[in-house]
Specification:
This protein is an alpha/beta fold and about 170 residues long. Helices cover about 35% and strands about 15% of the residues. It has a five-stranded parallel sheet, with helices on both faces.
Length: about 170
């Protein structure tokens, strides 16, 4: 299937996503810092790149700028996946050519995998906004109307309730 490069300095996150995406048949290349990620991108020419921003050796903004200089990668989707939540930082990533900016805390691993598959065109995909944007009420309403998969909660999903209206305890 697709070749995915995950550039992230958290080994647990790399393990979670590489295991899950490989189980779905994708070739997953991982890099634990920005320098290694840039070299891996040049060597493997992935179909999609997931890029953290705060990393050792080379930050994600620098990696993104360098990726956009490589003709074979210029049009490939780059998903910035970071805990940076400031609107100006996420806007900067988009202006630099990121396909989407996603805040780690706002999306479950299952939702992230579905998002990756959606960008690859390998799975039916319903877009769900998880990036920083303006705080208009229409966007908040749109976000809260999107259901999460069963058994998962996201910041925009309602809490599970029993039929009598009390919160369930499981």
């Amino acid at each position: 299937m697709a070749k995915i490069l995950f550039i992230e300095d958290d080994p647990l996150i790399l393990k979670i996503y590489s295991t899950r995406l490989a189980a779905d048949g994708h070739e997953v290349i991982t890099a634990g810092d920005g320098e290694a990620g840039l070299e891996s991108a040049k060597q493997h020419l992935p179909d999609l790149i997931v890029l953290d921003i705060m990393m050792p050796k080379m930050d994600g903004f620098t990696v993104l700028a360098e990726l956009k200089k490589i003709p074979e990668l210029r049009e490939k989707p780059v998903l910035v996946y970071s805990n940076l939540g400031r609107e100006d930082e996420m806007r900067k990533a988009k202006e630099m050519g990121a396909t989407e900016s996603i805040i780690k805390a706002n999306i479950s691993p299952t939702e992230m995998v579905e998002k990756i598959k959606g960008y690859l065109g390998t799975h039916a995909f319903i877009p769900q906004e998880h990036h920083v944007s303006s705080n208009s009420s229409s966007q908040r309403e749109q976000n809260t109307s999107t259901a999460s998969p069963v058994g998962e909660c996201s910041p925009s999903s309602p809490l599970p309730q029993q039929q009598d209206g009390n919160l369930s305890q499981d």
